[in-house]
Specification:
This protein is of the alpha/beta class. The protein has 6 helices and 5 strands; from the N terminus they run H-E-H-E-H-E-H-E-E-H-H. Helix content is about 35%, strand content about 15%. The protein has a 5-stranded parallel sheet.
């Protein structure tokens, strides 16, 4: 899927430093995604459980993904990502979406893929991807993250980014 924002030219260390300071940002969360029923439902649930945030959904859900056009330019979407602490998206899969995760990290956001809580699909806590997943049922409130948990996830992602491990665990060809 095509990205909505501008790509970053920063190196790993600068990205990790920006990520480590994400909890200083004025906006708690954002959903920046292509328009879909899942993205709409996620944003609705986030407002109920986490309070106000920012939501931008490019294109129209009834159009094929390749034919969708984002209304906002990539520079505007980049600015949205640069003011949010956390970027969330819904997935039916536990395989973290590498493109969305890296796009988020490039803008200093903690990437969180919201996925099902099914035990047989759970990622072990020792897995570096654990910091990128938020388990939730298909409906109902989303568990809000405490400041301590956000900080722990930011630190975990920044550490694995600096070491180069993050790219390796996000690359399905290496798994």
């Amino acid at each position: 899927m095509a990205r909505l924002s501008l790509p970053s030219t920063k190196g790993r260390d600068l990205l990790a430093r920006d990520l480590a300071r994400a909890d200083e940002r004025p906006l708690g969360w954002c959903v920046v995604d292509w328009a879909s029923e899942a993205a709409i439902a996620l944003a609705d649930r986030l407002v109920d459980a986490w309070g106000p945030g920012l939501c931008y959904q490019g294109g129209v859900p009834w159009s094929p993904a390749r034919a969708r056009a984002a209304v906002l330019p990539p520079s505007a979407v980049s600015k949205m990502l640069q003011v949010a602490r956390i970027r969330l998206w819904w997935s039916d899969d536990d395989m973290v979406d590498r493109e969305r995760a890296m796009e988020s990290i490039e803008h200093g956001c903690l990437p969180l893929q919201v996925t099902h809580t099914e035990a047989e699909r759970a990622v072990p806590d020792s897995d570096p991807l654990c910091a990128l997943l938020l388990r939730a049922s298909g409906s109902g409130p989303l568990p809000a993250l405490s400041d301590v948990e956000v900080r722990a996830r930011l630190d975990a992602v920044a550490t694995t980014l600096t070491s180069g491990l993050l790219e390796r665990v996000l690359d399905p060809a290496d798994g």
